[in-house]
From TrEMBL:
Domain spans labelled Ketoreductase: 7-187
PANTHER family for the chain: SHORT-CHAIN DEHYDROGENASE REDUCTASE, SHORT-CHAIN DEHYDROGENASE_REDUCTASE FAMILY PROTEIN
Organism for this UniProt entry: Candidatus Entotheonella gemina
InterPro entries: KR_dom, NAD(P)-bd_dom_sf, Sc_DH/Rdtase_CS, SDR_fam
Protein name: Oxidoreductase
Amino acid sequence: MTRLTGKVAVITGGAGGIGRAAARIFTAEGAQVLLVDLNEAALQEAVQGAGSNQASYMVADTTQPEPVQQYVNTAVERYGGVDIVLANAGVEGVVSPLQNYPIDEFDKVMAVNVRGVWLALKYAIPVMRSRGGGSIVITSSTAGIRGSNGMSAYNTSKHAVIGMMRSAALECAAYGIRVNTVNPAPIETRMMRSLEEMRTTIVGGDTTVEQTKSSFARRIPLQRYGDPEEVARLMLFLASDESSFCTGGVYMVDGGTSAGTVV
């Protein structure tokens, strides 16, 4: 299928699990894709994994204005413009009670998860406007609609980008630019491996990482983690013209997590 033929997509966090899955799906659907991340070796693997000469990469710090402006300009120089921005770069921070949460770690989470998204929108919107519109998809989380113990920075950041999305959706509607969030539950990615390990260390005793993962999965009504491709397919819908009347929305991809508590 070619739902994104003629479209240019920028994917931040392109070296991670969801970013890689989106790259594979977007290029298969005809898009030209620029992947952005800090890890060059992982970016090279992601481009190879996309299996297409329609993908390339750029190493950039998404928290700083100059690199963000540069990756937007690079997409224009290589592919002619920007039609889709997948603001997907994110970090989990540490698991710690709020009163003990390290200030530098809080600042890092907010810089990547909030400032980085804001900068992506700030510099991409004018370019997208000149193309006559497009779609911005921001990766939030189930943590963006509820709280959780020990995750004050991450939860705050994921709530924040929903507010940012709603403001941007209103501002950009006149330009034909749609803005939405995708909110995953636990997904089979590096981030969840990190959270499982941190939670296991906190619990201590004979608890294993596998037991911690099983505990997380049991809280999901579908009783499993999601796959990165399951998130990317929702991103594809929102990036494509099939979602032409969708803007300002919070789209869950969470196995039923947001519906309530499993008893």
